[in-house]
Write a structure and sequence with these properties.
The chain is 23% helix and 17% strand. By secondary structure, the chain is α+β, with helices and mostly antiparallel strands.
Amino acid sequence: MKSGPGCRKQRGAALLVLLTIMVLGAATLLVTQLNHFSGFWVRDRHSMQALAQAKAALIGWAVSHPLQPGLLPFPDRNGDGDYDGNSDCPATVDLSTLTGRLPGLGYPAPCVNPQGGLGVNPLDGSGEPLWYSVSSNLVYDGGYPVINSDLRDEPDNWITVIDGSGNLLSDRVAAVIIAPGGVLGGQSRGGGAPAVDNYLDSATVGGTTYSNSDLDLNFIAAQPSGSFNDRLIYITIDELLDQVERVVARRIDQLVRPCLTAYAAASGGKYPWAAQLDGSAPPDYTGDFGSNLGRLPETLNIDVSPGSPDGAMQASWNCHTVLPYWSSWRELVFYEVAADYQPGSTATCGSACLTLDGVGGKPFVIMLAGGALAGPGQQRSDNMQKGDIANYLEADNADGDLVFENGTASSTFNDQAFSP
């Protein structure tokens, strides 16, 4: 029996309804997926913004430390039974004390006085506090570490970060900051102070498992997945020291240079001899008669002839103590006094004044060396090398004449020079 027009219309209507249902279902699924991915990207963007804020805060905290620029705080660990946002100073420093939560609150821990905490405590896109791991080279271990430009050459105890394919991102990392993301399977964040593996994850690359929670110096920045949702950012030692060097140079210019000028004003306009460079012994900071160029002295020599001091000059100064962290940087600070302003001179500029950046008439120049440069072949390991100014200064600053310069930092030049 043939179908009538009414039956065909009913079947057509049914197909239209079915098609509509299918389209609506597909649209609903698409919207759900888009909402899921949209939510993920919003959370991820929020996490990356929090990480960037924390990185800036850490660098700012480090370079502004009044007693040791470059020092980094210990993390907030659960050894005291809680995560309270404050830096926890250990009795003994080991790997287990170097990873914890970012110490975001302002309470000053004993080992970082007189400075307080970061003062910022950003949360990641899942509302979780950030985590933080720091190199032992940059924390207070019963005393302040030596932090200066030569720390770039320290081979040990830096953090290593790889990407999700196992490629090295950096093995010269001073600190890592991690956004832990939401809870994954097997993790539990209830209770008082859950262990680090309830926040930080592991990823397997080429049959090797890398963990961000095993309290070592190795971290992985893998792509997010169902078993890994850490997001991290890091600070290399080069990034940190670039900022530290700027701060130290500025304070030498603001504090040490005016101190020398004030000393001369009380000493007939004259300046003491430099501490002579001597490759047969460790660097010495006692001024030496007849030495116009050397390291900035701590103990002055103002002799007109050996054993006969210039009576118009002050016998001591405090120009090395105006920097609380002088002991960390003194090997890198050099000084030349013009012959026209040395002990016994008339303190009047003649033919033996110094020139800095094309400007003459300078009674002295202070120079701050940067890290050892591979280009000029600089080395600073033994006394002989430490006694050679060419292992510290470059170009006009190292040639022993009366002309000095500043310049753009490069692979062959990184000095900074100051004069009145």
